[in-house]
Amino acid sequence: MNKDEKVQPEEMVKNETKKEEKGKKNKSNKEIERLKNENLALNEKILRISADAQNMKKRLEEEISRLQKYEGLELAKELLPTIDNFERAILLDDTNLNDELSKFLSGFKMIYANLVNLLNQKEIKEIECLGKEFDPTVMDAVLTSKEEGIPKNQVIEVLQKGYMYKDKLLRPAMVKVSE
C-alpha cells in the first residue's frame, strides 16, 4: 500500500477477520491431526489388547485340555504298587496251597483282573519288554548278564513292569539286559 492510499475501516476488519479465520483453521487443522493420531494410537492399543486376550484364551484352553488329558496320572501312579502286590500274590499260586488259601487267591486274581481292565480302559498300558531290545526311554537296566544264544542288549527278564499313560511314561520298566 502506498501512503496515499488509505485503508478503509471495513477492509481492516475484513483483513483481521481473514487472519483470525486462518489462525482458527490452522488451530483446527492441528487439532484434527492430533485427534487423528490419538485415534490411531487408541485403535492400535485396542488391537493389541484384543490379540493378547485371544492368545490368553488359547493358552488357557490348551492348558485345560492338557490337564484333562492327564487327569488320572497321579492316581494311576499310586495304584501301580498295589498292582505289583497283586501280581506277587498271584505268583504264590505255583506253590501247594490249602483249599482256603486257594479261594483267597482266586479272589485276588479276580480283583487283579478288574484293576487291569480298569487301567486299560483309562489308557494305562503295560510296556512290553521281555525279549525286546533295550529301550532307555521306557526301561531302566537294573542288571546285566551274559547269556548264550541271546543277542546283546536284549531284555532277558522284567523285574518290575513299566507303564505308559496315553503317550506319557508313567513308570519305566526295571529290566535285566544281556551283555
In short:
The protein has 179 residues and is of the alpha+beta class. The protein has helices spanning 9-69, 73-91, 99-121, and strands at 124-126, 139-145, 155-160, 163-165, 168-171, 173-178.
Layout: helices, strands, pairs:
Blueprint (H helix, E strand, L loop, with lengths): L8 H61 L3 H19 L7 H23 L2 E3 L12 E7 L9 E6 L2 E3 L2 E4 L1 E6 L1
Parallel strand pairs: 2-6
Antiparallel strand pairs: 1-4, 3-6, 4-5
Explained architecture:
- With 179 residues, the chain is an alpha+beta fold.
- It has two domains: 7-69; 73-178, Head domain of nucleotide exchange factor GrpE (Nucleotide Exchange Factor Grpe, Chain A, domain 2), CATH 2.30.22.10.
- It is 58% helix and 16% strand.
- It contains three helices and six strands; from the N terminus they run αααββββββ.
- The strands form two sheets. It has a three-stranded antiparallel sheet with strand order 1-4-5.
- Strand 4 and strand 5 form a beta hairpin.
- Helix 2 runs antiparallel to helix 3 (99-121).
- The radius of gyration is 41 Å and the shape is rod-shaped.
- The mean pLDDT is 85.
